[in-house]
Every structure is written in structure tokens, then in C-alpha cells.
Amino acid sequence: MNQIGAETILHAVHGGQALLGLVGAPQASMDGRITETHPRSGCASAPRSETRNRTLRIGDAPATPPFPTPGENVAQIGAENLLHAAILDWFTSLDQTARADPFVFEQGLAEYAASPRSRPFLKIQDGCGNACTYCAVTIARGPSVSLDKTAVLERLRSLEDAGFSEAVLTGVNICRYPDLAGLIVYLLENTDRIRLRLSSLEPDAVDDRLLQAVSLPRVRPHFHLSVQSGSDAVLARMGRRYGAVAVERAFAGLRAVKDDPFLAGDIITGFPGETEADFAATYTLCEKAAFAWIHAFPFSPRPGTAAAKMRPPVPQREAVARAERLRLLAQAGHAAYEKRWEGRTREAVIERYESGDETVSVVTENYLKRTLPREQICDKRPGAAIQIVV
Q: How deeply is 28 buried, as exposed, middle or buried, from its count of CB atoms within 10 A (0-12, 13-18, 19+)?
């Protein structure tokens, strides 16, 4: 699970007060409100009031609608494919108050300003019509819907007026937003200072217009590509609408318009029918991409999806081993990226105070995380932008 996914959970929980057990998601532990647990182990309780407790388990176990009804204590949700689709559905069902507007601000501006959250997430899109064979989002969430650009701008301006230096445009699949490139340009032309960071991008959506839009100075040089595989045969079975060449073209284009951006990718290993040669193609593609990080995870079938019935299955042990090889490659890629930026000055956003307020966690525009002494940031609040030497 990446940070955007983890933040989505925080914003989906009423008041951000729940403690969520994230199964097998070490990168998702943030500010004490999310606790890390070992894969397939237990979960933390999620107190939502003084009188009611609910637990939301996020991890390997597959789930499809219907989601738990009031009175049920535990929902098991497959994090990679159902995260965005299920969180709000489940928590709102506990109160028996369905939200008609999927784009309601999940946290008010006053709550944002008083919280340690530094980079608010602005949801612009929901649902997905891609119908990938492994994914249950379409089953759970339906076709893509988008927030009108004037409403997006109004919300972005309110965040800027509240003093935030950055906002993340997010959704189930923001590439399904009608004219995403045009939206980015429109938002930047009608705001003054606030920067934009994008959530996951589909490789085939990275065309010349989008590259031109993200080349603008206030778009963060940090991009996450939903790659899934480097094998054309596997991508076809997944129902993806591109091949390996499109992935290569996407990361080459992003590097052409930004100065050595932080590039990350999602990879599923052990998809049904994936051969050693298929995985070798994926590994080679990731090497060529020189990703700063790879989110690699073994295939987990979701009931109700076409992939759940595909044959032949790849043994789980082999799928896990392939994912581990990619994780090692990711660690090497991240170390190399860190080294390239060592000693260079970049803008960073203050995330939170640590260690009794003596130190401060910051994240750079190109997604490198650092801890600084408090005196170095002049007591600026979370969400403010500063210049640091990486």
C-alpha cells in the first residue's frame, strides 16, 4: 500500500480518529493513527466512539460486495484493489447514512488546520470503467464519475487560502477524469502558490498533453505509474490497455519534462499464467525504468473477477519470491536516487513534529523524506513549504 492509500483511509474515517491495522504495509505507518501488523496477523481496534468499536482489516483477504452491515465487527478488504472502493462504504454503513456525494470533503478545513496532516488530498474522481480482470473496483464502485472542474478549483483555492503549500489530486483512477491535462493547467492558472502532486497514473494516459501539463513548475516531480507487469502477454490477460512499450514511453517522457523525478511503479507478480519469461520481462522493464521505488505484491484473486477463474495459477511461494526480487530492486533504486540528490537544495513540505517537538519530519517536492531539528524550520506549522539541502 502506498502513502496515498494510507492517507485515504485516514480521511475516510469519521474525524480521523480510528486506529487501523494495516496488514503487511510497513510504509503506511503514519503519526500513530495507523499501526503496522505482520501479514495475516491481527488488527488494531478502531474506536469510533465511546460506546462502539469496529475493526477494519486491510490486507490479503479478498472481499466483494455486499460489505458488512451495521452490527458486524470486522471487514476484510483486499488493500490493493478495494482500498478506495470500500473504506467510505463500510464506515458510512455503520451509521446507516449513505453519502450521495462521493466528493464530499472528507475533513473540514478547520480540522485540517488543527491536525498534523500537511498535504491535503483533493478527490477529483471516483469509480473506474477499465474493467481490469483482477480488479473489483468496478464491481464495488461502478463507472467513473468526476468532480466538475469549477468545484475542484473552489476546493483547491480554499486549501490555498488556509495556508497549505501543496495538495494531492486523487481518486480511484484520476486518469479517467475528462481532460486531466486541461484540469491541471486550469487549476494552476487560477491559483497563486499551491503546488499539485498527482496520485497514480496509467502509463497509456501519459501523452504529450499530460506531459506538457506536468512540466509546469508547480506540479511536483513525483509520479506513480500503475505498471502491473512488463510482459505484454500478462498485460493482455489483465485487461490492461497498453504494452511494455507504452510504459517505457511514459517514464521516458516524464524524465524529459522534469529534472530526475521520483518515479515509482506498481507490479503484480504471479498473475495466472505468468511464466518465468514473463517475469523476466517485468524485471528487465523495472531495471530499465530505474524506478526510485517499486510497490511489488503477489497476485491475490478477488471473487467475482475474471482473473479469479484464470488458469494456470502460479504457486503462491513463487509469486512471493518474485515480489521479493522486485523489492530488492526497489531498495537499490531508492538508494541510487537518494545518492543522486544528496547535497542538492529542494523545496520541502513540513509534515509533522516528532520526538517531543524537537525534530520535524519533512518531505521534499521529489518525495524524499528527512528529519530536521526544529530550529531549522523557524517554527512553521505543518503544511508550510521550506527550502532544505537534501
A: buried
CB burial of 154-191 (b: ≥16 within 10 Å; e: otherwise) equals ebbeebbeebbbbbbbbbbbbbbbeebbebbbbbbeeb
**CB–CB of 22/1 below 8 Å?**
yes
Q: How many residues does the chain have?
A: 390
How large is the average pLDDT for residues 46-62? 40
Q: Are 38 and 59 in contact (CB under 8 A)?
A: no
Residue 389 pairs in a beta bridge with 345
Question: Which residues pair with residue 370 across a beta bridge?
Answer: 362
385 pairs with which residues across the strands? 349
| Rounded Cα gap, residues 91 and 387, in angstroms | 39
Q: Which three cell numbers stand for residue 15?
A: 474525524
The DSSP output letter for 83 is H
CA separation, residue 193 to residues 157, 164, 210, 218 (Å): 10, 9, 21, 8
CB-based contact 110:92 (threshold 8 Å): no
- Asked whether the beta carbons of 1 and 80 are under 8 A apart, the reply is yes
Q: Are residues 5 and 226 in contact, defined by beta-carbon separation less than 8 angstroms?
A: no
**Residue corresponding to grid cell 517531543:** 356
pLDDT at 298 over 90: yes
- Inter-residue long-range contacts of 154-159, CB under 8 Å, 24+ positions, other chains counted: 155/105, 155/122, 156/122, 156/187, 156/191, 156/194, 157/190, 157/191, 158/109, 159/109, 159/112, 159/120, 159/122, 159/194
Q: How far is CA 372 from CA 340, 342, 388, 390, in A?
A: 20, 15, 9, 11
pLDDT digits (tens, 9 = 90+) for 99-108: 456 776 544 4
Strands 34-37 and 195-198: what pairing?
unpaired
Q: How far apart are CA 128 and CA 139, in angstroms?
A: 9
Q: Give the pLDDT confidence score for residue 105 in this predicted structure.
A: 52
For residue 20, the Cα-to-chain-centroid distance in whole angstroms is 17
